[in-house]
Structure formats: C-alpha cells, structure tokens
Amino acid sequence: EIIDNENLSDEQKQDAVNQMVAMTDLQEEAAAETLLASKGFTDAVVSMTADSADVVVGASELSEANLAQIEDIVTRKTGVAAQNT
Q1: At 79, phi and psi to the nearest 5?
Q2: Which of 43, 41, 19, 45 is nearest to 30 (CA)?
Q3: Closest Cα partner for 41 from 74, 81, 76?
Q4: Is 29 left (phi over 0), alpha (psi -120 to 50) or beta?
Q5: Contact (Cβ atoms closer than 8 angstroms) between residue 2 and residue 14
C-alpha cells in the first residue's frame, strides 16, 4: 500500500522498501538460528549482509559433517550462497 500511495515521496517509498528488506533478513537469520539450535548447535548466531552470512556456534571443534550441516541450513534459510557463508 505504501508503494502505491501517491501521497508519499519516492524517498519515503524507498525507505519503506528498505525497512521491509531488513525485516525479511532478520526473519531469515532467526529461522537459521532456530534450526541450528534444534540440531544441537547451541548459542548459534547468524548475521547477514547483502551477499554474505556469518555464523557463530557454541562449539570448540566441528567435524566436516557438522560444517556441512551448518552450511546447508544457513544456505537454505538465508539464500546466501555456500561460498559466502
């Protein structure tokens, strides 16, 4: 509705779009964190930028299988390519 509102400036419309994108990113981060926690990766934190995701989990060591599982979860939930995680 905001985008189609003729009473708002282009700047106001762009601000609304930017806010919507930020909320979507937060939802994707939260979904990835929840799924990681459900798989046993405690204290998981996912932080996204425009084209990458950083992931921190509460583990002193991770096996190759753990790394693959984390990468798969983050890639599926955030849409960030595996090479950028």
Answers
A1: 80, 5
A2: 45
A3: 74
A4: alpha
A5: no
pLDDT (tens digit per residue) in 29-81 = 888 999 999 999 988 999 888 778 889 998 889 999 999 999 999 998 888 88
What is the reported pTM? 0.68
Q: Choose among 82, 5, 15: nearest CA to 51.
A: 82
Cβ(85)–Cβ(32) under 8 Å? no
Residue 67, amino acid: L
Is-contact 53 84, C-beta < 8 A?
yes
For residue 71, give the 3-state DSSP assignment: helix
Structure letter (DSSP) for residue 51: S
Cα–Cα distance, 21 to 69 (Å, whole number): 26
Q: Which of 21, 14, 68 is nearest to 49 (CA)?
A: 21
